Backbone:
């Protein structure tokens, strides 16, 4: 039996790459047995990649960001976004000011994904933010 397809994209921590990351996940899902996950997966990928790019900009980190998307099993999509910027993302617990332009990415991921987390066990100061869809 053939393994389900997966994708990996490594890119500089620059906002122009957020679109490429979204398009990569959209293409993976369009050609999968679960295209219904595409809209949510693309949105959450955009948030995770934007958070990684912003963390790198804030911390002066020029190391590449890596996106990996694939199937944890036949029905669960897992997306992992790794960056080398120190520090962890934080879920906002209070209401955001309606005029704030950012700060809702991890909150959106935490509310919309079937599972999610942040791992720091890689080499160096960075972290990986991951989410899964398809448990429901």
Residues:
């Amino acid at each position: 039996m053939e393994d389900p397809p997966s994708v990996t994209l490594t890119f500089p921590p620059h906002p122009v790459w957020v679109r490429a990351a979204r398009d990569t996940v959209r293409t993976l899902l369009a050609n999968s047995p679960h295209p219904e996950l595409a809209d949510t997966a693309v949105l959450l990928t955009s948030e995770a990649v934007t958070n990684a790019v912003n963390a790198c900009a804030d911390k002066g980190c020029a190391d590449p960001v890596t996106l990996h998307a694939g199937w944890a099993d036949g029905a669960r999509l897992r997306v992992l976004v790794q960056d080398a910027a120190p520090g962890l993302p934080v879920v906002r617990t209070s209401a955001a000011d309606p005029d704030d332009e950012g700060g809702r990415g991890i909150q959106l991921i935490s509310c919309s994904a079937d599972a999610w987390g942040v791992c720091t066990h890689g080499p160096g100061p960075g972290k990986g933010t991951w989410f899964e869809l398809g448990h429901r």
In short: The first helix runs from residue 17 to 30. The mean pLDDT is 88.
